[in-house]
From TrEMBL:
Record carries keyword Lyase: no
A GO molecular function held by the record: carbonate dehydratase activity
Extent of the signal sequence: none
Originating species: Cylindrodendrum hubeiense
Zinc in keyword set: yes
Family: Belongs to the beta-class carbonic anhydrase family.
Residues that hold Zn(2+) according to the record: 81
Protein name as catalogued: Carbonic anhydrase
Length: 148
């Protein structure tokens, strides 16, 4: 088996530069406007970015499998961001005049643990190649990533 060298240190260095000039902290609903490629210093074609509502790896498994098998992806970065369930519900009530209390938006009760859980899920899955998998938390107020 071929050993793959992680590019995570390069992504962290690029993110440090990005965060120094970050000015989008006041955007409404910043997570949906996050550009992971820009935040990690990637150019078009450098990475296959898989996004999904809720951000959980289990929901992205089909896309990860296709990415590895069809596109040759050889590293996985798990990136979760802070999400305020109550702020979102208030926004929906205010803007749509609708109550969404009956819906679950799956907020993380422990953000750090959710990243660790997703990294472990991917590492243990027989469908995921044995490649570097690194987890991060993205701070929507500062633009910084923190390795978990």
């Amino acid at each position: 088996m071929t050993a793959f060298v992680s590019v995570a240190p390069e992504l962290e260095a690029a993110n440090h530069q990005y965060a120094e000039h970050f000015t989008a902290a006041d955007l409404p609903s910043p997570p949906s406007r996050l550009d992971p490629a820009k935040a990690l210093g990637l150019e078009l074609g450098d990475a296959h970015v898989i996004r999904n509502a809720g951000g959980r790896a289990v929901e992205a498994m089909r896309s990860i499998l296709i990415s590895q098998q069809m596109l040759g992806t050889r590293e996985i970065i798990v990136l979760h961001h802070k999400f305020s369930d109550s702020e979102f519900r208030t926004k929906v009530r205010k803007e749509l005049n609708e109550d969404v209390d009956h819906m679950s938006f799956l907020p993380f009760s422990d953000l750090r643990q959710s990243v660790l859980d997703d990294v472990q899920l991917l590492k243990k899955s027989p469908l995921v190649l044995n490649v570097p998998i690194t987890g991060y938390i993205y701070d929507v107020k500062t633009g910084k990533i923190e390795q978990v």
